[in-house]
Amino acid sequence: MIYLSRLLTDRAMDRLHALGHPVRVGREEPPTRAELMAGLAGAGAAVVTLTERIDADLLAAAGPQLQIVANVAVGFDNVDLAAARAAGVVVTNTPGVLDRASADHAFALVLAATRRIAEGDRLIRSGQPWVWGPRMLVGLDVSAGATLGILGYGRIGAAVARRALAFDMRVLATSRSATPGRTDGAVRFVDTATLLAESDVVSVHTPLTPQTRHLIDAAALAAMRPGAYLVNTARGGVVDERALIQALRRGHLRGAALDVFEGEPAVNPDLLDAPGLVLTPHTASAGEATRDAMGILALDNVAAVLAGRPPLTPVG
Ligand code: GLV
Ligand code: GLV
């Protein structure tokens, strides 16, 4: 039996039913912990999303017949990999299929923050009179030679770099696998300190791990250029939100954009009036074709494992 914790897109649901296994399907909303436990009980495969925390207790409650947890996301910090390994459960994610959509969104946030799109929208809706002005809502020209720093040059980071290069930006990146001084085309790899010091816009693309929690803390923000911008489409925990709010309030950063939050889906109320901040509700991969592809890849992993074949995109 395949347990699906939440309704996926229509195309992904069609694929689920075409697999021909018995299914147990949750609702559009996230399951409660009790619903998740009941849903997993007796399942051979579970398709879950990043709103479900999969830990040792849940895996134990699911029972020994559980073979795979397929996460419909590229990030998998919601799954306890050590517990899954101990339980003999394969864990898979959905890399690759969401790179372009996520990079599009990250770059949309770069432009929204630097060109003050949300602020302009709010101004018009406020009903206050406005008139074109040479000093009105002026922001950073990214395409006048500004530098973008990509923190974490994986597949999504590289896709963001391609967009930035098309906008005539200079691009720096950090990567675990590329030593500073190396290049990838026009992208130059540097260490984190250099990236923070030389970037006009820093975009975060690292997974959330114990090593990257609060990677962007007060010290990292202070090391950024005065007037720089921060964009986070990775995971909320990579950025210390309280330190970011301070940096925006003090004016050290001119703006920022967040798609992900430390206490998600709760949003720290102080973020709501932090100056220059653009917010989106974890929608970086929310393209139609992308969401279909994420669900289908998760289900292809399930089909492979239930048929005794290796998973397509295992993690850990
Ligand atoms: C979304 O945040 C994902 O990890 O796919
Ligand atoms: C502004 O609207 C311009 O025409 O430059």
UniProtKB/TrEMBL annotation:
Residues 107-284 form the D-isomer specific 2-hydroxyacid dehydrogenase NAD-binding domain. CDD domains: GDH (cd05301). Belongs to the D-isomer specific 2-hydroxyacid dehydrogenase family. The lineage of its organism: Bacteria, Bacillati, Actinomycetota, Actinomycetes, Nakamurellales. GO terms for cellular component: cytosol. InterPro entries: D-isomer_2-hydroxyacid_DH, D-isomer_2_OHA_DH_cat_dom, D-isomer_DH_CS, D-isomer_DH_NAD-bd, NAD(P)-bd_dom_sf. Coiled coil: none annotated. SUPFAM superfamilies: Formate/glycerate dehydrogenase catalytic domain-like, NAD(P)-binding Rossmann-fold domains. Keywords: NAD, Oxidoreductase. One of its GO terms (molecular function) is NAD binding. Residues 9-315 form the D-isomer specific 2-hydroxyacid dehydrogenase catalytic domain. This is D-isomer specific 2-hydroxyacid dehydrogenase NAD-binding.
